[in-house]
Automatic annotation (TrEMBL):
GO terms for molecular function: oxidoreductase activity. Keywords: Oxidoreductase. Residues 15-308 form the NADP-dependent oxidoreductase domain. InterPro entries: AKR_Detox_Biosynth, NAD(P)_OxRdtase_dom_sf, NADP_OxRdtase_dom. GO terms for cellular component: cytosol. The keyword Oxidoreductase applies. Transmembrane segments: none annotated. This is Aldo/keto reductase. It comes from Microbispora oryzae. It comes from the Bacteria.
């Protein structure tokens, strides 16, 4: 496993991050404690060092299980969790990005994780109501109190993230060092605004769902695959979903790899800022996913995969690219 600093911070994290959303059997199909232990052990043996969870994953069981499994080896991992999602549906202040929920959520997570600090504390998503100034100041207070080392944000518009880090720079607050967003061959939206912003501002990008909820894992394209996994069915997928999944399968067959490895390797190859988050319910799944770190996709395979997605930047990206020769004439610079 190779390591890179997370964004502009000095925090060194492995190229693949372990997602613990599957840790626990509450609220649907997940991994029981013994299997979670095997998953974490395999990840650590492979050199992985960053774990991603959230206060609401498996109704809190994910954090509780991690707290037990990390006993005695907490310092060997970069531990991250998130807040925003409601802790109590009957309490209007038990959710959101405001100071009150941040404080209560952080204390709850620290107690479950059996630690006195988290390495990265993520705002789980933009709540559209809390002033970003309040959130950034409250996060900075948590950093100054030693309960959080770094902060990041997930699932938010580019303009909010940019404004937040500009405010942090002006006031001397702790800036976001990371951005957590969905990214896969089936969901390339971040290429329009979020990924360019992250690269420009020096944010690490932890990419969730690189397998598009399992659609790109091969389960619907390999012979004898399941008709359903409890959430999706082969019939519920769009024609585009099936088309892209088939190309991923074909590329995997050509390279002697698995579809999961191809899909994860593509996500990782898009930018040095990107660290795919890989999750698993079984240790065999994780072993397969980890092998993506050693897979290098040939340029012709990358072109084939991306052509299948039919993705375009849309406005203003495509417009700017199309009009650049008209704007700059002979002075147009080669972007490479």
């Amino acid at each position: 496993m190779r390591y890179r600093t997370l964004g502009a911070s000095g925090l060194r994290v492995s190229e693949l991050i372990l997602g613990a959303m599957t840790f626990g059997e509450q609220g649907g199909v997940g991994a029981p404690l013994p299997e979670c232990r095997r998953i974490l052990d395999l990840y650590a043996e492979a050199g992985g060092n960053m774990i991603d969870t959230a206060i609401n994953y498996r109704d809190g069981a994910s954090e509780q299980i991690l707290g037990e499994l990390l006993e005695g080896r907490r310092e060997s991992f970069v531990l991250s969790t998130k807040y925003t999602v409601s802790r109590d549906r009957a309490d209007p202040n038990a959710a959101g990005n405001h100071r009150k929920n941040l404080r209560a959520s952080l204390e709850t997570s620290l107690r479950r994780l059996r630690t006195d600090y988290v390495d990265v504390y993520w705002v789980h998503m933009w709540d559209r109501d809390t002033p970003i100034e309040e959130t950034m100041r409250a996060l900075d207070d948590a950093v100054r109190a030693g309960k959080v080392l770094y902060v990041g944000i997930s699932d938010a518009p580019a303009w909010i993230v940019s404004r937040a880090n500009t405010l942090a720079q002006w006031h001397g607050w702790s800036p976001f060092i990371g951005l957590q967003v969905p990214y896969s061959l089936l969901q390339r939206d971040i290429e329009r605004e979020l990924l360019p912003m992250a690269e420009s501002l020096g944010l690490g990008v932890t990419a969730w769902s690189p397998l598009a909820g399992g659609v790109l894992s091969g389960k619907y394209t390999r012979p004898g695959g399941p008709a359903t996994d409890g959430r999706l069915t082969a019939e519920s997928l769009s024609a585009r979903d099936h088309a892209v999944a088939r190309v991923v399968q074909d590329v995997a067959d050509d390279l002697g790899a698995t579809p999961s490895q191809v899909a994860i390797a593509w996500t990782a190859s898009r930018s040095r800022a990107i660290h795919p988050i890989i999750g698993a319910r079984r240790v065999e799944q994780l072993r397969d996913n980890l092998a993506a770190a050693d897979l290098t996709l040939p340029p012709e395979s990358v072109a084939r995969l991306e052509q299948a997605t039919g993705f375009t930047l849309g406005f203003p990206g495509d417009f700017i690219a199309q009009t650049s020769p008209w704007v700059f004439g002979a002075a147009l610079a080669d972007p490479s």
